[in-house]
Amino acid sequence: MNSHILYPGDKIVIASHNTGKIQEISALLAPYNIETTSSRDLDLPVPEETGSTFIENAVIKACAAQAATGLPSLADDSGLEVEGLDGAPGVYSADRSGPKRDFASAMRRVREELVNRGRWLYEKPAANFISTIVISWVDGTLKSYEGKTYGCLVWPPRGDLGYGYDPIFQPDGYNKTFAEMHPAENIELKTECKAVLSHRSRALELFINECISKV
Predict the structure, then answer these.
(1) Angle at 168 between CA 93 and CA 125, to 5 degrees
(2) 3-class secondary-structure state, position 75
(3) Domain region containing 84
(4) Residue 170 lies in a domain
């Protein structure tokens, strides 16, 4: 068997302590009968994310989980990139929420910075979410996948179904924010669910197509 392919019944570690992220990735892998656990479930220490790019931080998390468990480990590093802020908060998106992960404060800061620059006057500021996923295989091989979702920012925040910056991000072509969209696919309006549109689902789709057996 290919050591870089996951088969039904195989187990993988989601290298994250973020409940929303763990649930989203687990749901996307569930149709392929891949058994998932997480760094949170296993009470693994949170590695220090010292990278200056999404891929560097994803590698740190994936490698830490793989070394601790001996299992293939999948990490995501993601963030919000705002055109009017020269791509900020970017790789520091989570850091801006502080140790208590106060994203209400982080969203206000994004809004205030755009207003102060004169970038939030009439039109909704352009932005995108980006996700970089890294798989660390048991032989040390690393592979990365990237997904992006483009849209704009809205104010005030809307919805309570998401996490992070979801309440102020509205994807192109829709009048709902990510936090107003159902996170799963098993609903009638599949095109209005985050599982179809999110940056993370797009990066994970590339991983699934290359690394998960469909037979």
Answers:
(1) 85
(2) strand
(3) 11-211
(4) yes
In a domain, 3, yes or no: no
**Whole-model pTM over 0.85:** yes
Which among 10, 41, 43, 77 is annotated as catalytic? 77
Residue type, 176: K
Note the pLDDT tens digit of each residue in 25-37.
998 899 999 999 9
The answer, yes or no, to whether the previous bond of 89 is cis (omega within 30 of 0) is yes
The CATH number given to whatever domain includes residue 58 is 3.90.950.10
Asked whether residue 2 is assigned to any structural domain, the reply reads: no
What are the distances in angstroms from CA 152 to CA 98, 158, 164, 196? 24, 13, 15, 18
Q: Examine the residue annotation and report whether 77 is marked as an active-site residue of this protein.
A: yes
Nearest partner of 127 among 179, 175, 176, 166, judged by Cα: 166
Would residue 6 count as lying in a domain? Answer: no
- The tally of domains found in the chain comes to 1
Q: Average per-residue pLDDT in the chain?
A: 91
